[in-house]
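User: My instructor asked us to take a sequence, write out its structure as tokens, and then describe one feature of it. I'm not sure where to start. Here is the sequence I was given:
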Amino acid sequence: MRDETGGKAKGGFARAKRLTPEERTQIARQAAQKRWGDTVLKAPYKGVLKIGEGLPCFVLEDGRRVISGRGLTKAIGMKGRGQGTARIASLIRQKDNRFSELILAIENPLMVDSGAPLPTQGYEAPLVVDLCHAVLNLRDAGLLKTEQEMRYAQECDLLNRAFAKTGIVALVDEATGYQEVRPKDALQKYLELIVAKELAAWVKTFPDEFYENIYKLKGWTWPGMSKNRYSVVAHYTNDLVYERLAPGLRVELERKNPKNEKGRRSAKNTQWLTAEIGHPMLAQHLYSLTMFQRLAIAQGYGWNRFVKMVDKVHPKKGTTLELPFPNDEEAG
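Assistant: Let's start with the prediction itself. The structure tokens for your sequence are:
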């Protein structure tokens, strides 16, 4: 096959091969400057907030604090390639039209010269807080429906808590003069501590099969995880899981994680379990329940028979076993 590359293109490839990495970077920077001109803002200071996978941040020459757009989308759990911030704006616009100013700001990012060959898209730090508030408002209004959308809200809640608590600490340091003598990374370490202690990052704990098997045992049509489950399933979860793990666990979780006036909790109950003991206990218990579900389904048992099986092996804490009356052996 004849090589179609020739003339200026062929010469350009040959020239590129002779350039050093530093020379290629400089050429890219010059091209970017020509394209964006004076809209590219200098950032003499840069760093990374240690939240999740890291949140790149900058301070511009005029003092504005800026957060990386790509880092922001990762921080709220929006994975994958593409224009993540545009997807955030689209999500908010679809759910509620009250946030027009926020959407406009998201759709017009700052172009920051962070030292990389190409400018970095970023947003002033206060906009990040406004974004978190908007997503949480959508959640509280019941407008977030899918599991993925609820995950965005969970991550925004985490960021919101972390920023608020770190902010008040910074104000106290400034008022007392401690900011002049505190270690350089003191606030960053405090932020890491708050993120780890206050609310663990959202993790999928309950397997899909656990809920699917509940539907099978009840004789209901399984709609998949993308659909809202019947409200009574939450009651079954409390009965099968939280009331059987440890005495008083369900009551304590509901005290720490109460419902708001709309009947929703600000976090998942699993996020209040300790990593060292609570989560391993939960994982082991769910594995056992799933095995009993599979056995009951294979034997053709119904929901009531399944629950009686669980009662014998994992009785509720603080209760006594049922007497084995003859009708215990009946299916369903």
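For the description part of your assignment, you could build on this observation: The chain is about 55% helix and 10% strand. Try explaining in your own words what that tells you about the chain.
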